[in-house]
Amino acid sequence: MSEKKYRILVVNDDGFTAPGIKALIEVMKEIGEVTVVAPDSPQSGMGHAITIGKPLRLDKIHLYEGVEMYKCSGTPVDCVKLAVNKIFKGRKPDLCVSGINHGLNNSINVIYSGTMSAAVEGAIENIPSIGFSLDDYTWDADFEPCKKYIKAIALEVLKNGLQSGVLLNVNFPNKEKPIQGIKICRQANAKWAEDFEERQDPYNRNYYWLTGVFQNNDKGEDSDVWALNHHYVSVVPVQFDMTAHHAISVINEWNFDI
Amino acid sequence: MSEKKYRILVVNDDGFTAPGIKALIEVMKEIGEVTVVAPDSPQSGMGHAITIGKPLRLDKIHLYEGVEMYKCSGTPVDCVKLAVNKIFKGRKPDLCVSGINHGLNNSINVIYSGTMSAAVEGAIENIPSIGFSLDDYTWDADFEPCKKYIKAIALEVLKNGLQSGVLLNVNFPNKEKPIQGIKICRQANAKWAEDFEERQDPYNRNYYWLTGVFQNNDKGEDSDVWALNHHYVSVVPVQFDMTAHHAISVINEWNFDI
Fold first, then answer.
1. Which residues contact B201 (CB under 8 A, 6 or more apart)?
2. How far apart are CA B97 and CA B83, in angstroms?
3. pLDDT digit string (tens) for B175-222?
4. CATH of the domain at A54
5. Residue A92: inside a domain
6. Does A203 map to a domain?
7. One digit per residue, pLDDT tens: chain A, 258 residues?
8. In chain B, which residues have their Cβ closer than 8 Å to the Cβ of A218?
């Protein structure tokens, strides 16, 4: 059987013009038939936002040879929903890949990331899904070293499948050293320490720019932050059941004064 | 010691004018000192979105007696970040409550909901946090029956604390029958079956409205959907560690062909 049997949905959050999605498309073309639905403007930090209060646009574009491609006015999650419902219709794709993001989505970033939320939405739709991100925030980031890992991980997912309700969050280390291999990890317990830069507009009204510093106090050698710091590709299995199952028995002991 | 010792942050996603946040403020005023930071426009479905590409406005308003209140141009998560950093500054509030949402945030809705994402952000900031939602989507929903439960749940959280990385997702059933009590639950395994209504603008270009039907195939009597269908208040402990810990050993068996 030809390797071209797989039908692959490619999405991202940096928008359809991003070099990161171009690199991901190039890898996926080696594996299957590629359909791209990407935002028409950058959607970083959109998390799992969906568009309710206004209508969506979905327009076919011609950008890469042999690739069916659409730009969408909505969020990354909207892109996945539109792809499943209006493009693939009844017959779901075999794989949904998101990225390659220009910047890390390790640790708590999974929850803010449009890249990862698109992959989560793919998994909610019961499609094997993977998000890819690189520790390089520049537009001209070099995605070449990621490509063989992306292909290998995608092929393993297609071969083995993923457990129900599980997707993968794959992050690539920075280019300071060669990649040392792949580590299967847990999400590090880290967070952003925000600050807001306060400025005044020409009318003397204040406004704020969100800024922040990533703070990791998790020293575990099984975390994604550790793996990336040691130049491994981090692979975190992610779930969208957000229940804190371990807390149910604790709260069952409480006595509510009704 | 006076009951007024607690410092409470109130947020929502329906915006500062919503009757739901008014009801929540009324309950919290009985417990402590209330500070409100709410979006200046409806932010339903914003999930964990943050505002990166543009600046934020934060303006003090005077709406309810004895309440410090601000409206914010950003998302529900932005509201929490601004509150912690620019209003509470170093000294975090004792409690962060979000809602009362006009509409359910049970099951998978936790991931799309601005109400719940604000509470998640509170928990990331290590503040005991609770999101409240009512199964009534109308603007003139009756929040009165929720109030004694909200007070009792908030007081238990303040008394017992919550485990690190855990918050509560509280949903109230519809008004067809009286509330039967409180159930501690897990998130039901349900999803939205989307459809998009396709229309044409006056220039003959297509656009799409997101619509959908909630589909629950989870028959478990320990789920939030079951509790709400049986007219209980559902309380789901939620975590923001999205690692699928049970999948790590499975994926460690894979052989990546690098």
1. B207
2. 12
3. 999 999 999 999 999 999 988 999 999 999 999 999 989 999 999 999
4. 3.40.1210.10
5. yes
6. no
7. 444 589 999 999 999 999 999 999 999 999 999 999 999 999 989 999 999 889 999 999 999 999 999 999 999 999 999 999 999 997 999 999 999 999 999 999 999 999 999 999 999 999 999 999 999 999 999 999 999 999 999 999 999 999 999 999 999 999 999 999 999 999 999 999 988 999 999 999 999 999 989 999 999 999 999 999 999 999 999 999 999 999 999 999 999 988
8. none
- Domain assignment present for A155: yes
Containing structural domain, residue A40: 3-188+213-242
Half-sphere exposure of B237 (CA within 13 A, CB side): 19
CA-based nearest distance B65→chain A, Å: 25
Cβ–Cβ under 8 Å, residues A34 and A28: yes
Instruction: Give me the total of CB pairs closer than 8 Å, taking one residue from chain A and one from chain B.
Output: 235
How long a stretch of residues is chain A? 258
Please name the helix (run of DSSP H) or strand (run of DSSP E) that holds residue B124, with its range, or none.
helix B114-124
Instruction: Residue A71: list chain B partners with CB under 8 A.
Output: none
Chain B contacts of A185, Cβ < 8 Å? 248
A240 contacts A165 by C-beta, under 8 angstroms: yes
Q: Is A145 an interface residue toward B (CB < 8 Å)? A: no
- Please check whether residue B202 lies inside any domain of the structure: no
Nearest-Cα residue of chain B relative to residue A14: B53
Cβ separation A241–B189 shorter than 8 A = yes
Chain B: nearest CA to A66, how far in angstroms?
24
Looking at the structure of chain A, the number of domains it has is 1
Q: Which residues of A touch B111 (CB under 8 A)?
A: 48, 120, 124, 240, 242
Strand partners, A138: none
Q: B27 in the Ramachandran plot: left (φ > 0), alpha (ψ -120 to 50) or beta? A: alpha
